[in-house]
Amino acid sequence: MNNNEDKRFSYTYTAPTEEERREIDSIRKKYVQQTKKETSKMERLRSLDAKVRNSALVIALTLGVVGVLLFGFGLTCVLEWNLWVLGISCMVVGCVPVGIAYPIHGIVLAKNRKKYGDEILALTEELLNEDNLEEKK
What pLDDT is recorded for position 88? Predict the structure, then answer.
């Protein structure tokens, strides 16, 4: 064999199609750190409102799910394995987080409204006043 054939290097280049470029760009946007601050007052208002509502909801749902899982485990202990003491105690313990999930939701929601309420009210006043000024022009 010829030594030149053994030392060859070859590669193939293919450029992504326009559709692939759009898909790549949409995936890339998910992972790029967003460095720009929220520019709009309306965006800030929406994010604060979502923070107030969603944090309370997440805590209440977590409590509810944990309680239901404990209750279900206790029910399984009683019905399938005839472990009455363990099953009943797990069911009672599981009822506690389920029972307090709704009141905790209200407490966290009230706490968040108090914490972010002033900023939300200030933003709403600014936005409403801007709308009134634009209408008068």
Answer: 97
- Compute how many other C-beta atoms are within 10 angstroms of the C-beta atom of residue 116: 15
Alpha helices by DSSP H, listed for 1-137, are 3-6, 18-31, 41-79, 84-136
How far, in Å, CA of 106 to CA of 119, rounded?
20
Query: Cβ-count burial of 79 within 10 angstroms (0-12 exposed, 13-18 middle, 19+ buried)?
Result: exposed
Q: SS3 for 27?
A: helix
* pTM of the predicted model as reported, rounded to 2 decimal places: 0.69
Among 60, 49, 44, residue whose Cα is nearest residue 112: 49
Q: How many other β-carbons are positioned within 10 Å of the β-carbon of residue 120? A: 17
Residue-wise pLDDT for 84-106, tens only, equals: 999 999 999 999 999 999 999 99
Tell me, what's the pLDDT at 36?
53
**Are the CB atoms for 67 and 95 separated by under 8 Å?**
yes
